[in-house]
Amino acid sequence: MSAAEDQCDAARVLAGETSAFEGIVRRWQSPLINLAYRFCRDRSRSEEMAQEAFLRAFRNLSSWRHESVFSTWLFSLATNLYCSELRRIPPVTLPFDEIHEPTDPRTLNNALDRDIDERNRDAALHRAVQTLPPKYREVLVLYYFHEMDVPATASSLNLPEGTVKARLFRARDLLRAKLQPLVRQRATESV
Amino acid sequence: MNRPQPNATPRDALDTLLEQHFNASTTQLTPSSGFVLSVMDAVHQQSTAPPPIAFPWRRILPGVIAILCAFVAFFLYIRTHPITGALIPTNLHLHPHADMLASNSLGITLGGTALAICLTLAVTALSFRLAGRSR
Fold it and tell me: Are B9 and A150 in contact, with CB atoms under 8 Å apart?
């Protein structure tokens, strides 16, 4: 994705050529929808949130100061919107205590068990992430969305890198405590 | 975006699990076919929509000026014509501390008027803020 194309399209939009915004939407629709999906895990809601993010970007395009690349500005704006939207109407979350402990890897005897456990593992992870307090969940979602890039996560959230690292550490701690057997199993598999 | 871990924290088994969970191929959504069209429709609607109606300052200004003039005239009147009868109850003259009570009564009246004006201004300012926010 070219930053020059974004800059050119943004300049055309600001000059009054509204249709130039389509290029921006085409380039960034997939990342923005996928980012929204990681927050809400609901396909139709993620498209609605992404549409609102594009509209907000269109309205506030003149506030993009070119100090950062367009994608950083767009992700920051979208993240801000998604977080406030999900705080307004949160996705369904479960209390931490209601998450069942995953199967102990030592009891896995055959392939079927492993397959079931694979699906259980993903479901358990999803539930565990959903039970995290929003400030930890948001950091975690963005950190893995940006392929474990702390500076990108920090600029998307408008937070100092130190705060992001501290929240990641705490979020991982909380998850590790809850998902200990899963983590141990993964560690054994990777050896 | 998507530059891999220059400042990443140490990687462990939990990282691998979470990375697989968040970036699994099953959770990579493809936008629906009408998404771009729907966004551009909304964008065009927004760009062609008339600008928000400006607050009618011209209409409201004469009223505000009239209120201020009345307020000033009232104070001038109070200063030039000390109130003795109208604002003071008739039986107050019989009271041993009539003078003190009369000045207290005047003070209460003026205080009440000032409070009412302040409240009006506060309510007006609040409604301006709310209207500005909703726009």
Answer: yes
